[in-house]
Every structure is written in structure tokens, then in C-alpha cells.
Amino acid sequence: MAQKILLKDIDVPGIETFDVFRKQGGYSAVEKVLKTMSPEDVVEEVKKSGLRGRGGAGFPTGMKWSFLAKPEGVPRYLVCNADESEPGTFKDRYLMTKLPHVLIEGMIVASYALGANTSYIYVRGEMMPQIRILEKAIAEAKAAGFLGENILGSGYDLEIYVQPGGGAYICGEETALLESLEGKRGNPRIKPPFPAIAGLYGCPTVVNNVESIAATSWIVLNGGDEYAKIGIGRSTGTKLISASGNINKPGVYEIELGLPVEEFIYSDEYCGGIANGKRLKAVVAGGSSVPILPANLILRTVNGEPRLMSYESLADGGFASGTMLGSGGFIVMDEDACIVRNTWNFSRFYHHESCGQCSPCREGTGWMEKILHRIEYGHGKMSDIDLLWDVQRKIEGNTICPLGDAAAWPVASAIRHFRDEFEWHVNEPKAAMEGNYGLAHYADPLPVPAAPSELVK
Amino acid sequence: MSEKFKVTIDNIVIEVDPGTTILNAARMIGGDIVPPAMCYYTKLQGSGGKCRTCLVKVSQGSEKDPRPMPKLVASCRTTVMDGMVVQNITSPEVIEARKGVVEILLINHPLDCPVCDQAGECHLQDLSFEHGAEQTRYEFKRRTFERIDIGDKIQLHMNRCILCYRCVFTADQITNERVHGVLNRGDASEISTYITKAVDNDFSGNMIDVCPVGALTDKTFRFKNRVWFTKPVDAHCECDKCSGKVTLWYKGEDVIRVTGRKDQYGEVQDFICNTCRFDKKKTSDWTIEKPTEIDPRSVISANHYEMEHMLPVIDKKIM
Ligand SMILES: Cc1cc2nc3c(=O)[nH]c(=O)nc-3n(C[C@H](O)[C@H](O)[C@H](O)COP(=O)(O)O)c2cc1C
Ligand code: SF4
Ligand code: SF4
Ligand code: FES
Q1: Which domains does chain A have, with CATH numbers?
Q2: Which N-terminal residues, if any, form the signal peptide (chain A) (predicted)?
């Protein structure tokens, strides 16, 4: 069994209550940091752990914390990003539902490290049950003296507030989240300035994902070095993966980074293989925004090495043949899945969720959706495929926030790897409406290239 | 002497104050290398960054850190560093991206220039003339909205709006009550007052001047004339609400429109009040200064101004 850090006690009955959590050793990280560590010590441990942001971008958490500006007399804020709205990702919801105190404990540790006396958890508006669970957990922690004024006699004060979002994916983007938290329209801000300098109400702010914050308690208790021993290379520690799609055992799994993708999909400990005895066609490995890969490329890199669940291995090959770990939304598609339909579905999402501030994303996402819809419903033209390619290229990299890129990548990768399936939709509209393209050659073993120079495109 | 930063834009070197944006540095140089700006507006705090027409390539970040910036950047919101090297029209990548932005700005635009009051002084028209393709590749129904009257003097043609947010910043910053903003999101966004309420404010008319397209137009000027048949004249008056410095637009003897005075980038020098804009439509209300200086290439210049060089008189007998 692989090491569990976040979900260690998930099966303990009543673990969502303060008393049971405390009996299992909960909140000892708070005791340790408040009694024996300076805020700088905590930042140092987190740096040593190599923990990387679990919200999608994978930015080293310790480094992010050390960038926080500390001007005299200005409050600093910690904001927990619990807006989780990426299609395919549902790990934060799971953690907050089952183990709310893991997050609250992490919030106290992280707030202390950053010198924040007021911290917020911005929760996706649709997650009302989780909001109530968190509020109850906060009240319990406060009653036990772990929140409020002069916590455990240390002189450190902290209040945590839960803020429901208004139900927009874009409010998960950290600067849009801050706007929304301030009560404004959730438009992403133009960076710089970065939140570390001017975030919430213009004050230095750190925005971290639920999972990143939750991991910090274990790190301070066991030491950053211990955490860094888990995982592989620069992908340290464990990661929650939301597994969904055509698998036998969908759910949230805590894996040690570095687990082979093949093992994750087929072993009984995790996904348990493809459902109904079907064969694997494609995987979206890190949430809807990351490039989709056909079966052969998700299991092995172009060099023939087994692909691992790590930031580096999944990205191996760049855009040409790799993808990203993202937020860990692992969507598995079997031989009956239609790539065109799936791509259309994703692009419909991004069209709907664009904030509309910048022109390429506002107009381009809708354009892509309409073209994909036309192809899917049998009215596509061959030139549409190139047009789609061109439109996504005009969006990518030219927008204010990464939502534009997130809308472009799924389309680009689908065309790159599954172009013949698009062409089939155009050439055989009737057949495409009635059946589907099937597994085709997507699972065929890859020829191992002789020299790396041949990898280019 | 305060420190100056040296920047190179399309191979032209200029020294500017720290904190200057790439766009403003380029405007100091002037000419063809100035990126087009559809949403940035000097007077409006926080404006810019949205339309993406001003994207440029930073091929060297600074003297100290010469690495290029990984993506194209919005020149209106990126400040210069000492030793920065910027490419605008010398970069094929920038030209390509800009063409893309223009195409995208036009896919839902009604292209109703023949019946639009802004025609002739529309920045989107200029932009598409310079960067646009002859034909659109967009084959779907365009987004449409009903026209809305914002009070009795301003009309909103949402179909033409490019969501530059300038009018929103104007309503926010120079009027004292914020009743105007953006509703909905994505390509369903619309500029609106809350439930078509009038923007009741002495300075609301400036929203018309800041709008780069024909989305916000002056109802008192509506369909009166095409701008290129009118003659702009700088004038002023004693006004206790604003500077009173305006441009009068004449048709024959009649003042048919009053606007703020705009510079070559279409930005007004001073915001003017609604009394000057909508109520003072007689020559006797004003002290005339001189004909407004308009870019000789503008269509507005077509009808009125002496050409710089008179064409030689052709002696018909010789021919
Ligand atoms: C469109 C968009 C949506 C995002 N949604 C989320 C989200 O729901 N949860 C999250 O933690 N990060 C989300 N992010 C990433 C955040 O901007 C930010 O990088 C993250 O919260 C930082 O936390 P981390 O360093 O702990 O990962 C989103 C980013 C974008 C561009
Ligand atoms: S990229 Fe899209 S979501 Fe992001 S700021 Fe621009 S319009 Fe809004
Ligand atoms: S109405 Fe005009 S000024 Fe306002 S956002 Fe639209 S284009 Fe810009
Ligand atoms: S003028 Fe710079 S983005 Fe619009």
C-alpha cells in the first residue's frame, strides 16, 4: 500500500468531527508550530518539502510563500481556493466533505507561516453542503481554542471565514477569485501586480489550493525532508487524483507521485481497469484544460519509457506528445468514446465560462464551439478542421488569464492526435451520427524513434 | 536629473521615465510603430489590457535580464525596463496575432457602417482597414441585441460594442454614482445600466466620446450627417462645470454636434459636461478658436482642408 497523507484517516468513523479528528492526532501540527516554530521555520520546512501547488499550475508552494511582501502595518491574507470547477476534478470537494479538519488545520499552519490574521476559504457556490461542513468545523476548532484570539496562549490571532462563490468557473482563477471575494464582478486582474504584492483589498495575499494547504500540516509534523522522500524527482509527496470516465472504480485516490499511469488505470488498488471489458482509447490526465492523449501516448512516452503520474513525466514530449498533471482530474475514455463530441463538450464549457473581458477568449471560444458542433452534427467541412486549428492558435497565449489557453489546448490536442477522427466526421457524416470511430489505431504501440531529433512534431 | 530608461521599439531608441508603458513610449516616438489601442485610455485609470490589439513582442526583457518574454504582451499595460527591446511592426508574429484579434473582434460585429454614426471616426473601421482580411471565415449567426436608450441623449447599440470597458470606467470614475457596468459573461456580456435606467449625471455624455466604435452615440446627432461632411472647429466657453474646451462640428452654419477635443489617438484632452455637449448648439454660445487639427489621412479631412500641395493646373490645350 502506498503512503497516505491526506486521506490517512478517511475510514475512521466520525473523523469529520473535531473530537475524533483530535483523538487521531489532529491539530498537533498547530500545537507544534505555535509552540516551537517561527513563521520562517514553517516556510522553510514547506520549501524543503518540494510541495507544488495542487490547483493546476504546480508552482512550488514554499517559494510562493517566501515571495509574499511584508510591508509594515499592512495586513496579509491567506485565501484558500476551494472553487474547484474544472470538469473532471472533484478532489477538493471530497476532502472538504470527509476531512474538513485536515483543511482547517492546514489553514492555521499556513496562516501562521504567512503572518495572516484573517484567512478566507472561497468555496464554489454550488457546494452548499461543504460550506456548512466547513463552518461547523471552524466553529468546533474555535470552541476548542484553535482559532480566535491568542491561540493556545501563543499570542497569535486568527479568524477563518468561508465565502461562497457565485458559481463561475473563472472565479477559480486566483485574481478573479480575489475580485469576487471583494464583492466585485469576477474578472481576472491583469498581472503584474501579483497577489503576493497586491492581492485582496490591495494587500499582500497568498492564494493556495485546498490540497496544497491541507498537505502543510503533515509537512511541519514530519519535516519537509520526509515529504520530499515520497514521490519522484521534483514531483514530491502525494497527490489526490479524481478518476472518472469508463473505469471500474471511479473515485478520488491518493497516490504517491511517480506511480506508473498503467498501474493507476489497471490495478485494483486504483481505477481497476476499463469498465465492461472495453479497451482504452484516450485519457485527459489533469482536468479538462490539459491536452488529451491517445492510449499509446498516455501509457508510454515517445521514447518508449513508461509514463508516470508526475509533473515531469506527464509533460514529457511537450505539446507534441505530452500533457500535464494539472489539477489531477483523470478522465478515461474507452473505445466507444467520440473524441469530436468530447472536444465539443469541453469547448462548450469554456465558451460558457469565459468572463468575456478579452477579445480572443470572449469571441474565439464561441467560434470554436460552433465549428465543433457543426462537425459533430454532420455539417462540417474539411476546411473547418484547419480553421479550428487556426482559431485556437489565435487564442492561445494572447489572453489575460490562462482560461484562453485552457480553452485552446483541448482543441489543439484533439486535432493533433485524432485528426483522422475529425476527418471521418466530415467525410462520413451519416456513419458518424449513427456509430463511432472506435479505437482505430490509437492504442497501437509507438515506434520508438531512433534519435531525439526526430521527435520534433 | 531623474533616471531614464532606454527602450528600443522597432529598432528606434528612446529614453523614457521609469513607469512608462511600452505603448506610451511608442507614442512618444510616433508614426507607424505605435500599436493600435482599442481599450486603453490615458485618462481612465485601470483601462487597457482587454482588447489585445496592442500586443507586442518583447525580445529582450531588460539590460539586466535579457531574456525575451515568453508571450506577446499588452503594450498598454506593460511598463518598460531599462534596455528593453520591443518589436511591433517588425515582428511577423505580432502582425499575425493582431490580424487574429481584428478578425475575432469582427466576427460578431454587425458591419453596419453605412448606417452607423461613428463611420469615419471609428477605430474599429481603421483597424480593420489596416489589419483585417477581406472576407470573414465566420459562418454563423451574429450575436444581436436590442438597441437601448440610456437616458434621452445617449443610445446604446450593443451589437457594435467591443467590450473595451472604457464607458464603464468613465461611468465609474467621472460620474459620482456607479449605475453602469457589464452584465452577464463571455460573449453574452453586455454593457448596461442596471435595467435600462438612465445614467443621470452631468458628465455621462463622455461615455460617447470614449467609445471607440458606434456602440454609444449621441442621440442629438443621430443620423444628422456623416462626419466627413462636417467641419470640426475648436471652441471654448465659460463653463462652471467643466473646462469648456470643445470641438464643434459644423454643417454649413449649424453646430450639429459638440464633443470633447480628441488627440491623434482619439483620446479627449478634457472631459466636458452635458450642458456643453447637448445644450449649447448655437455659434453664439461659443468663442471660436481655429479649425480642429485632424490627421490629413482621416476621411474627415477629405472635404474641407486645403491640400498641402495644390495639384498643378493642367493646361488642357497641350493635351
Ligand atoms: C480558469 C481557471 C480556473 C481555476 N480554477 C481553480 C480552482 O478551481 N481551484 C484551484 O485551486 N485553482 C484554480 N486555478 C488556479 C489558480 O489560479 C491558482 O493558480 C491556484 O489556486 C494556486 O494555488 P496552488 O499554488 O496551491 O495550486 C484556476 C486557474 C484558472 C486559470
Ligand atoms: S482569457 Fe477569457 S476568462 Fe481570462 S480574462 Fe480573458 S476573457 Fe476572461
Ligand atoms: S459601449 Fe463602447 S465604450 Fe462601452 S464597452 Fe462597448 S465599445 Fe467600449
Ligand atoms: S489597448 Fe492594450 S489591450 Fe487594448
Answers
A1: 18-229 (3.40.50.11540), 239-336 (3.10.20.600), 339-437 (1.20.1440.230)
A2: none
Q: What is the ipTM of this complex?
A: 0.89
What is the nearest CA distance from B301 to chain A, expressed in angstroms? 31
Closest ligand 3 atom to Cα of B39 = 8
- Cell numbers linked to A84: 474547484
Residue A185 touches partner B, C-beta closer than 8 Å: yes
Residues of chain B found within 8 Å of residue A384, distances taken between Cβ atoms: none
What one-letter code names the amino acid at A277?
G
Give the count of alpha carbons within 13 A of B33, CB side only.
Answer: 21
CA distance linking residue B44 with residue B165, whole number of Å:
10
Find where cell 508552482 sits.
A59
Cα end-to-end distance, chain B, whole Å: 65
Q: How far is the CA of B159 from the centre of ligand 2 (A)?
A: 20
According to CATH, what is the number of the domain B5-103? 3.10.20.740
Mutate to test the interface with A, among B23, B103, B178, B190 (most CBs of A within 10 A): B103
Decide: A130 and A169 in contact? Cβ < 8 Å. Answer: no
CATH 3.10.20.740-classified regions of chain B: 5-103
Per-position pLDDT tens, chain A of length 457: 689 999 999 999 999 999 999 999 999 999 999 999 999 999 999 999 999 999 999 999 999 999 999 999 999 999 999 999 999 999 999 999 999 999 999 999 999 999 999 999 999 999 999 999 999 999 999 999 999 999 999 999 999 999 999 889 999 999 999 999 999 999 999 999 999 999 999 999 999 999 999 999 999 999 999 999 999 999 999 999 999 999 999 999 999 999 999 999 999 999 999 999 999 999 999 999 999 999 999 999 999 999 999 999 999 999 999 999 999 999 999 999 999 999 999 999 999 999 999 999 999 999 999 999 999 999 999 999 999 999 999 999 999 999 999 999 999 999 999 999 999 999 999 999 999 999 999 998 887 666 555 444 4
* Grid-cell match 496579509, residue found: A76
Report how far ligand 2's centroid is from the alpha carbon of B39 (Å). Answer: 15
The edge-to-edge listing of strands for the beta sheet with B73-74 is B12-16, B5-9, B84-87, B55-60, B73-74
Ligand 2 center to A400 CA (angstroms): 6
Comma-separated ranges of CATH 3.30.70.20 domains in chain B:
144-218
